[in-house]
Design a protein that fits this description.
Length: about 230
């Protein structure tokens, strides 16, 4: 009888501890709508903002959502680090409604033209696709999802201005390369696509360079295959 009561107290104690212990893992959701907690689907850039037009789902393989893991995935779809690892220009900010407020981009990646060591240097010179990465991982909305601002830009002599319709073109070009089965060395990825409408208003209001975009966000779920 005494043993039974002691065991009941142990079970109760474990249950109470589990209920009060902080949850460190990310939530099992694709993403949270940043607008719900005063966030925005436009980042801060100059006189306007760039649309966060691609989301890497929080339900993706966890490794893909880390800096090193996402870099490997990006390389599998033709993107990589900036030329010689150097970054010029002011870092942009985004508020993903997760309780972290306005935070700087995690990294900037550029189109890689498959030249050894200097693939993104060519993009810097002649223009092409590039993206900025922001992670939704704050205390109020910890999806772990990556929100990307993807666009296609002009060459260096044009100061990397966004081409006409460059937000939609850059987004679609990135997504076209990503969907399906891709590989980087010994890592293979399967990417599926869903379109999200109604979160990002179409048009050019508040958009950097006053370039209109169609308001569609591409949700990518990336699964590493073993």
């Amino acid at each position: 009888m005494l043993r039974s009561k002691c065991w009941s107290f142990v079970v109760l104690g474990v249950a109470l501890f589990a209920a009060s212990a902080p949850i460190s893992r990310r939530d099992a959701v694709d993403y949270y709508d940043p607008r719900t907690l005063s966030g925005s689907l436009l980042n801060r850039s100059g006189s306007g903002g760039e649309p966060l037009n691609v989301i890497i789902s929080g339900k993706s393989t966890p490794e893909v959502l880390t800096p090193a893991g996402f870099l490997d995935y990006a390389r599998a779809v033709g993107m990589s680090e900036e030329c010689l690892g150097l970054h010029h220009g002011t870092k942009q900010l985004a508020n993903l409604g997760d309780g972290n407020g306005w935070v700087e981009e995690r990294e900037v990646l550029r189109e890689h033209f498959f030249l050894p060591f200097f693939g993104t240097c060519l993009e810097t010179m002649v223009g092409g696709n590039h993206l900025r990465v922001f992670r939704q991982d704050g205390p109020k909305a910890n999806s772990g999802a990556l929100f990307l601002a993807v666009s296609q830009e002009m060459d260096l002599s044009s100061h990397h201005m966004i081409i006409p319709n460059g937000y939609d073109i850059g987004r679609d070009r990135f997504v076209q390369r990503a969907v399906g089965t891709k590989a980087y060395y010994d890592k293979t990825y399967e990417t599926t696509l869903q379109n999200i409408t109604g979160m990002l208003p179409s048009g050019n209001r508040g958009v950097n360079h006053r370039i209109a975009q169609d308001g569609v966000i591409k949700l990518l779920t990336v699964t590493m295959k073993k």
